[in-house]
Amino acid sequence: MEYLPLFGSLVGIAVFGAYFYRRARVAGTACDCGDRVDGRVVLITGANSGIGLQVARELALRGGRVYLACRSLEEARHTAFSIINETSNTSVRPLQLDLNSLASVRRLVSELRQAETRLDILVNNAGCFYCPPSLTEDGFTVTFQTNYLGHFLLTRLLAPLLVQAAAGARVVFVSSAAHLTVSRLEFDCAGRAAQPAGAPPLPPAGVPAEPPARLQYHVAAYGQAKLALAVFAAELARRLRGKDICVNSVDPGNVNTDIYRHYRELNTFHVRLLRCFLMRTPSEGAQTVIHCACSSKIDGVTGQYFNPRGLAMSPIHWRSADGAVERTLLPAEADRSAGGDGPSGPAGLCQPGARCRLLVETEPDCPPPAGLDLSDPAVSAWLPAGAATIGEADTELDRLLERCLRSLRPADRGNELFAAGRDVDALYRYRRALALLVYILPEGLSEAERAAVASARLACRANLSAVLLRRGRHEAARAAASRVLIEQPNHVRCLYRRGAANLALQDHEDAERDLRRVLELDPGNAAATRQIALLDKRKRDVDQHTANFMTKYFQQ
């Protein structure tokens, strides 16, 4: 009993310490601005719960005409009724928006245009994480379309209303630090976000699948979408600079919302208790978003990335800095859905009736391909403008193919440097070759021409995987080899490189599968035989270690 006072004191110190730690490290900074938004038109996506709900409630309290864009119209109506009762602001309206349907985005824009002549504040908040891998009705991954593509199309179609705003309009993108976990934007030739290496094939649209066992698949997919959103926001801010439209991104921090509902491991009883302590509440996460949406302290501030403590940082990612923006194909369907609305035209999107579309990949040190006119309105509209639409003229297709052939020169030089042991220089040449390569989906191109383009691309990626493996960059080597194996599953060298990379990464099961496949295709492959021998030795060592441990344990 004599220790009870001491025990109580220790418990009290622990509780107060945890409270102050949470205030200092988790809660973040509250928005202290008192600015009103009376009469200003506000649209918030994902406004029925989490951060979106808190932002909607706060802007309604400040007098805004708030439109709640939610997947379920019934939930939007219920939320609007609740906010009206809490704030006495009757200018709160529900709208139905399913970001997994580009048609739904168009319908929402049509409804808003009928109701309003301007839009003062657009908060792109909705998002998803750890979704079962499947395709939307438009043919894109759910994570990619929900987090990026739907918001891209929505922002583009609402451009005329933003321009018509009486005072400076504001566009706020709710981002995430997850975009820093990926080093580059990866898209396949159909415009979808590429699956991470080793991910299972996607089922058809509307058909759910079992989620992959590894968290890295979901983190990579989410990071890709958020990086695309960050690049779009930064480039949009740059192009609209001087037009009295402020575009900023916000990282709300790790917020305890329904975005984790698909992640079962985070929804157990004990973990949910920890989430309440270690994560921000939706109200705390919404503070920086509210600050960027209505604070007069940041009038004229655009192109910034606000961290959870409300501090502006620039650049947010080396991929979104001026001059280093990833030149990325955006899906042709988005352009067809956009129609002729908005400024001069989208970049990187096929016009209806165009013969082909292309993707240009660039590295920070590699400029866009020569001959690509970035001042062309069809190229330089709202998005990173490294991709252009190729029209009907055969001469344009000829120039496109000529550019592909030009990419072979740095690739050949890369081969020479690799043979000479100059790995860093070879890596640069291969990346420059990929910067010049284009991915074509033409209607009138011959099979031989298509085969030549595909062969050049695959050869460059295969060589890139070899350099990366020799440099010890095993994750990147595995990813590059996997990209080749998607199109050529029996590519012996890439199978070997992926197997060797998996072995170095201690992924023995996948390594053995790839190396055994190499020996099936090429029984005399000495390198694969050596790797298999090394793998078998590791297995024997592990078995021997386990046996020794068990023997020693039972002897005791």
TrEMBL record:
CDD domains: retinol-DH_like_SDR_c_like (cd05327). The keyword Oxidoreductase applies. InterPro entries: NAD(P)-bd_dom_sf, Sc_DH/Rdtase_CS, SDR_fam, TPR-like_helical_dom_sf, TPR_2, TPR_rpt. TPR repeats lie at residues 492-525. PROSITE patterns: ADH_SHORT, TPR. Gene3D superfamilies: NAD(P)-binding Rossmann-like Domain, Tetratricopeptide repeat domain. It comes from the Eukaryota. Pfam families: adh_short, TPR_2. The keyword Repeat applies. GO terms for molecular function: oxidoreductase activity. Keywords: Oxidoreductase, Repeat, TPR repeat. This is Retinol dehydrogenase 13. It comes from Amphibalanus amphitrite (Striped barnacle). The lineage of its organism: Eukaryota, Metazoa, Ecdysozoa, Arthropoda, Crustacea. The gene is RDH13_0.
